[in-house]
Design goal:
With about 100 residues, this protein is an alpha+beta fold. The chain contains two helices and five strands. The chain has a five-stranded mixed sheet, covered by helices on one side.
């Protein structure tokens, strides 16, 4: 499984990007990441999850997950981030800070 993650926006407008491939992670991290994708029901999420009242200083996240023959991209605004997706976003943000 390969996940591309990008966070844009916020007060300073600083972008963070990272790409994670589970084949390059320790087994326990790879398993955690796979479970987070499954728990978010990622492949069934809509491509765009936006707020009816956009706020300029909020973050926007773009995630692309490739898993065998499945490929899905979701763009979500911080203000309407589904609770099921939050743990995956947090894991990816931590990963981006380490790189």
């Amino acid at each position: 499984m390969r996940i591309s993650f990008e966070r844009t926006g916020g007060f300073a407008g600083i972008s963070k990007k990272t790409t994670v491939d589970t084949s390059e992670l320790p087994a326990n991290e790879a398993n955690t990441l796979k479970r987070l994708v499954e728990a978010a029901d990622f492949f069934r999420l809509p491509e765009q999850i936006t707020s009816p009242n956009p706020q300029s200083d909020r973050f926007q996240y773009k995630l692309t997950v490739e898993d065998n023959d499945k490929h899905h991209t979701v763009i979500v605004s911080e203000s309407v981030l589904p609770g099921t997706l939050r743990p995956l976003i947090e894991w990816l943000q931590n990963s981006a800070q380490k790189r």
